[in-house]
Amino acid sequence: MKLKIGDIPKNKEFMLEENDWNILEEPCEDKFIIYGILFGILLAYFSYLLVESFFEIELRNLNIFFDIVFIVVPFHEFLHIICHPNFGLSDKTILGLHLRKLYFYVYYDGVITRNRMILVYLFPFFILSFCFLLILLIYRIDSEFILYIILANIIGSGLDLISALFIFVKVPENSIVRNYGFKTLWKKVSKFE
């Protein structure tokens, strides 16, 4: 695994024009990030309403929420990483921080299957939000702390969820996917090794 500060890297050795790669139609980076945050906030709001219909949990302390964000982000990114080939221990896995735009990212600079890329995007949401929400509801746990974890992760998962949806809807099932900077590329294959 490599660490990087700055923009999401573009592999200089990869030739975009070669090998019939298709560029997935997605919004530009800044718009995509804004859409992701807004979608995450909207989804977090509806999740809070769901929990509130079962419990009388009040979100009393926003300072705790912001502290939890700093705890959730590394776990969220770690959950992306372990879905990469070799559990993220490959030199193609990059953990980055964009200081100017204030976001963390995990990036795989290689080719993976469409379904694995969808898993990479969805896994943190599934573990830290969906599973925690089920535990909260099934076991009737009245915990403001767990609710903050769920909501912080949902907000942080907004872009991941939209990205997974774009790939699910627009990329054919028997395809391989790779990233090139902020762009997602794909091509249909008969078999991937």
TrEMBL record:
<feature type="transmembrane region" description="Helical">
    <location>
        <begin position="118"/>
        <end position="139"/>
    </location>
</feature>
<protein>
    <submittedName>
        <fullName>Putative zincin peptidase</fullName>
    </submittedName>
</protein>
<dbReference type="InterPro" id="IPR021683">
    <property type="entry name" value="DUF3267"/>
</dbReference>
<feature type="transmembrane region" description="Helical">
    <location>
        <begin position="145"/>
        <end position="169"/>
    </location>
</feature>
<keyword id="KW-1133">Transmembrane helix</keyword>
<keyword id="KW-0812">Transmembrane</keyword>
<keyword id="KW-0472">Membrane</keyword>
<feature type="transmembrane region" description="Helical">
    <location>
        <begin position="32"/>
        <end position="51"/>
    </location>
</feature>
<dbReference type="Pfam" id="PF11667">
    <property type="entry name" value="DUF3267"/>
</dbReference>
<feature type="transmembrane region" description="Helical">
    <location>
        <begin position="63"/>
        <end position="83"/>
    </location>
</feature>
